[in-house]
Request: fold
Amino acid sequence: MVTKILVVDDEPSIVTLLKFNLEQSGYTVVTANNGKDGYSIASQESLDLIVLDLMLPEMDGMEICKSLRQEKINTPILMLTAKDDELDKILGLELGADDYLTKPFSPREVVARVKAILRRTRTNEEEESIIVKDIIIGDLRILPEQFEARFKGEKLELTPKEFELLLYLAQHSGKVLSRDQLLNAVWDYDYAGDTRIVDVHISHLREKIELDTKQPQYIKTIRGFGYKMEGM
Reply:
């Protein structure tokens, strides 16, 4: 099976470096050096993953990510940023990016992240063929086979990563899960203790299923350890 990856970056040296290393790993790579062309390819072609720079001419990475998700195009996105700015990373994740890397980075690290994201994606596709019962917790209903969730009957607009996290929490309802456990289970990558990505996604989920995010009824914070999905 051919795996097709789009690399969007306005620095020719980075594009050349990523294209070479990804192709050496057996992937087919298409490239774009500005946001407009990158968005056009991402919205029209069948892709397995997008490596997307944050700062781009004509259309930046944030705008591309947001537009793709609004169009229900859920191709996994690995976002690249030259800024060591936490707000940029958080915003990118909230708009639907699956992972991020701060420049400068090593080509091996990019390839490792790409492999981890693709492995998760394919595992989810394989699991879709297995009959799985819906999970009901209070007003929350999770439909694993449809890869969707509903709250009070209304379909939730979730990114792929938000759904994976919500499903994992629900499957382990009543159990306290550490941030490291969630990282390993949902992201399947060693973030060297950087658990903020978990907190960002938990916060975003709460905005969608909690009536009061300051006093959550579904996803409880266990201070000093992690999170727990409460049965209702």
In short: The two ends are 43 Å apart (CA to CA). Residues 55 and 61 are 6 Å apart (CA to CA). The chain has two domains: 4-127, 135-229. The mean pLDDT is 86.
